[in-house]
Design brief:
Elements (H helix, E strand, L loop, with lengths): L1 H6 L23 H8 L1 H7 L2 H15 L5 H27 L3 H7 L3 H18 L5 H26 L5 E4 L1 H5 L4 H7 E10 L2 E8 L4 H15 L5 H17 L3 H18 L2 H17 L7 H15 L1 H20 L25 H34 L4 H20 L13 H9 L15 E2 L15 E2 L16 H8 L5
Helix pairs in contact: 4-7, 5-6, 5-7, 5-17, 7-19, 8-11, 8-12, 11-12, 11-13, 11-18, 13-18, 16-17, 17-18, 18-19
């Protein structure tokens, strides 16, 4: 390193090429993160996908921690969920007279899953992992889904009802439900819940609904890919994962978030027209004998009937979770409870972030979760405000917001702590939408941003700036002088 510095003294340390240290794919993109995304299928086939994700997150945050008040408030609010849950587990163990049981559950995935979520957001913000090079790599995952989907079709035509095995790492680990759950290689499998059977794609995710969430993330992030071919591959592959996971929640989420994204891309006139038309339609429906609330209820019941066994199982879990919360509303029961069914594995406090936190951590943990979600949403909106003058970065931030809204849709029906490692690119992209660095406004370019500029992602050129305000206001008082006015005074051109 000394020899290189001595032979190239003409290159200053602050040159733009200096930070491009750590990447093969693009400047600023860590090699370890790029390699993890590129070789996801290899990690999956060896059983190292989840341990590899944890290693990548630890390495990224150890090398660089994000700076700035907004991002650190978000990180520590997510960490507070794990701290509250661990405290509730220990307290419940003490109350039951078995402190070791409480301590053991304080290190379960219901606790450390939130820590990995915080680390993923921190790494995404510190390394700015919401950019086009990352989108190019995530789009490859959509290609993998398409290729593995063809393998699943061929296997189904050959008469297979399941295509699954245990990975090499899973064979080395001691037998257990957790080890088999996270180290199995499942292309597709036949699931039976309370007498109802469904064949679902799983691929490089622990279970089918996680593929649904991951497919949404792949489709949204791939929309930012540089190449049109990879962009279409990622979007189509992500949507294939969503549909053939047969997750009703994922299908509903992709429709809602997709409609929101299309709405943001409309010009202001069409945005106003869409909102006005929607409100007018709601007002006119009762005149035709249609109750909007009853219509939504009918759609919900129709979705429940589509997979009635799964819906009945979830209703049982949610009912028992709520009853358990009422018996211990402050600190909950510390950990996930026993199954609500004698044959099926349907534990109390599972399959829902909301009911799960209320049952395992009570109001204390649920309050920390609500604060974390509010802090994340506020930080993402703040990030959009800071990027308002950079159109490309603004699009990346909108994708971050859409990913976070997708998580909010999943909260009532899935446990988010179990999704942080299987889909780290989702959480790192959310972190990339939160600015890291001094909490100051972007550098001024000499022009004043227009106060009336709309927030829209349509492709038409927009007027981003307006002329500087005059030295005097309309009421005759002295106004705020602009840099242009001061320059004219310095040149002796004052009117």
């Amino acid at each position: 390193m000394t020899f290189l510095a001595a032979t190239r003294p003409q290159m200053p340390d602050a040159s733009p090429a200096a930070p491009a240290a750590a990447t093969d794919a693009a400047p600023g993109l860590p090699r370890v993160y790029a390699a993890y995304l590129k070789y996801t299928v290899v990690f999956w086939l060896t059983g190292a996908l989840i341990p590899g994700a944890a290693f990548v997150l630890f390495k990224l945050v150890a090398a660089k921690w994000p700076r700035g008040r907004a991002i650190n408030i978000v990180i520590f609010s997510w960490l507070s969920i794990s701290l509250a849950q661990a405290s509730c587990s220990i307290l419940n163990g003490i109350l039951l007279g078995d402190p070791l049981l409480g301590l053991r559950n304080a290190f379960s995935f219901t606790v450390i899953g939130w820590i990995f979520g915080a680390l993923a957001i921190a790494a995404g913000s510190a390394w700015n992992l919401a950019n086009r090079p990352v989108a190019d790599l995530v789009a490859r995952l959509g290609g993998y889904i398409l290729l593995l989907g063809l393998v699943a079709v061929a296997a189904r035509l050959a008469g297979f009802t399941n295509l699954r095995t245990l990975s090499p790492l899973g064979l080395l680990l001691p037998g257990g439900n957790a080890a088999k759950f996270y180290t199995s290689i499942i292309v597709f499998q036949r699931e039976e819940t309370l007498g109802e059977a469904t064949t679902r794609l799983v691929l490089f995710f622990p279970w089918a609904t996680a593929l649904g969430l991951g497919g949404i993330a792949i489709a949204l992030i791939s929309s930012r890919a540089t190449s049109l071919g990879w962009r279409l591959t990622g979007i189509v592959g992500g949507l294939v994962g969503v549909v053939f996971s047969w997750s009703r929640l994922a299908i509903a989420a992709v429709v809602l978030v997709g409609a929101f994204l299309i709405f943001l891309r409309l010009p202001r006139f069409w945005q106003i027209l869409a909102v006005g038309g929607g409100l007018a339609l709601l007002c006119l429906l009762p005149t035709f004998g249609i109750d909007p609330i009853a219509l939504v209820s009918d759609v919900h019941h129709a979705a429940d009937k589509a997979r009635a066994g799964s819906s009945l199982a979830r209703d049982l879990i949610y009912q028992k979770s709520w009853e358990g919360f009422l018996t211990s509303p402050i600190i909950g029961h510390g950990w996930i409870g026993e199954s609500v069914h004698r044959i099926e594995d349907l534990p109390i406090g599972s399959h829902s972030t909301i009911y799960g936190l209320l049952y395992t951590g009570g109001i204390v943990t649920m309050g920390c979760f609500a604060l974390a979600m509010a802090a994340t949403l506020g930080a993402l909106l703040y990030g959009l405000y800071r990027r308002r003058d950079d159109r490309d970065a603004l699009h990346d931030g909108v994708v971050s917001l859409c990913l976070f809204l997708t998580l909010l849709v999943f909260c009532p029906y899935e446990s988010l702590f179990s999704l942080t490692l299987p889909a780290i690119y989702l959480f790192t992209w959310i972190g990339g939408g939160i600015p890291s660095g001094p909490d100051t406004a972007p550098a001024e370019s000499g022009l004043r941003p227009s106060a009336g500029r709309r927030f829209s992602l349509d492709r038409r050129p927009q007027r981003h700036f307006e002329s500087a305000p005059p030295a005097r206001t309309a009421f005759g008082g002295k106004g705020r002088r602009s840099p242009f006015t001061r320059d004219k005074q310095a040149l002796g051109t004052r009117r």
